[in-house]
Amino acid sequence: MSTAASSSEAGPAGSLKAQLRRAERLRKLKAFGLVAPLALFLIIVFVVPIGSMLWRSVDNTELESVMPLTTAGLQQWDGMGLPDEATVGVFVEELRDSRQGGGLGRISRRLNYEDSGYRGLLMRTLRGLPSVSAESGGDWTQTLVDIDAAWGETSTWLGIQRAAPATTDRYLLASVDLERDDTGQIQRVSEGERLYQAVFQRTLVIAGGVTLICLALGFPLAYLLATLPARTSNLLLILVLLPFWTSLLVRTAAWIILLQSNGLVNQSLMASGLIDSPMQLVFNRIGVFFAMVHILLPFMVLPLYSVMKGISPSYQRAAVSLGAHPFAAFWQVYVPQTVSGIAAGTILVFIMALGYYITPALVGGPADQMVSYYVAYYTNSTNNWGMAAALGSILLVVTLMLYLVYHRLVNRKQLIRN
């Protein structure tokens, strides 16, 4: 009887557990169904483009897709003397075939990254090749040398060999002013060709300067909005949000008009007697800071305002009533509670400033262009997608590293205060 009783008790209990498990699975499926569209959207518009950019920075399939047999032969070559006759014959045959389907343009563009003379060399070679097929035999190495003496130089074939692998670190190295020599060792490019390290440094300096100025202006403004009566605060908040309703291009063009030699700013300064002649305020770093701070300031004010609005003023009044100086109460009691808003605002403004293109391009001078300018240049002007992707990848890595360092520092400060 006891066994039957225990079985009857275990039966309902087991059934209840099964029902709970089914309910839990159903709850998870519903939660997944709600999240799935957003996850799919992020994968399509965020993960896939970034993954494509990272792949483009090492993609080197132009030569392999047009000359698969030549690339295979050159990768077996030891780099001494000249390639064997079979490899040269295959190269001649595939060079002829490359005139169809736009292959010649792709390999010419890729080889020109190694040396600017390859395009002309390939064109001269195609015009001088005899009509006989390479498969019929013959001394094709000598034929190429007779057309152009460059084919008798080892460096010419080494350049093609460097472009043969399906992946390359050439673009990533070039993005930080590095290159590989003929022996494969990494070295710095010549001093006259060094550019991108200075560009990255300039980008970080401009983004950091804009962020600090926005913080210096945005913190007191957000504090004022959070402490004023609701009616006045809402009116001022509308003025803060007003730039969002104006096109970025229009705002940038407006700053050019305001800051030019005969603009309102210079005219006002001269009318007040502060200056005797117009100052150069546009097409330089000053104009870039003016325009970028104006555009990005709301992104600093809004996170600060949202945090400050939730801070009770009684904490600061309590500190003053206990004998603290008003400034000490503000600095030691109020400011620590705004750390999350400061962190959100600074990281938001800094990351947005890193990728700015239109404003520095229009308001700044040649020495004020940021990484985004060169990404656009390689994408739109030279069609060098590898270099554009490499610059974007380096900027992405730098941004992630700085964010991780910043995040750790903020968390450490909060732990110390707690």
From TrEMBL:
Pfam families: BPD_transp_1. The chain crosses the membrane at residues 31-55, 204-228, 235-258, 286-307, 342-365, 385-406. The keyword Transmembrane applies. It is found in: Cell membrane. The keyword Repeat does not apply. SUPFAM superfamilies: MetI-like. Residues 200-406 form the ABC transmembrane type-1 domain. InterPro entries: MetI-like (IPR000515), MetI-like_sf (IPR035906). Keywords: Cell membrane, Membrane, Transmembrane, Transmembrane helix, Transport. GO terms for cellular component: plasma membrane. It is a multi-pass membrane protein. PANTHER family: ABC TRANSPORTER PERMEASE PROTEIN, INNER MEMBRANE ABC TRANSPORTER PERMEASE PROTEIN YDCU-RELATED-RELATED. Belongs to the binding-protein-dependent transport system permease family. CysTW subfamily. This is Polyamine ABC transporter substrate-binding protein. It comes from Billgrantia endophytica. The lineage of its organism: Bacteria, Pseudomonadati, Pseudomonadota, Gammaproteobacteria, Oceanospirillales.
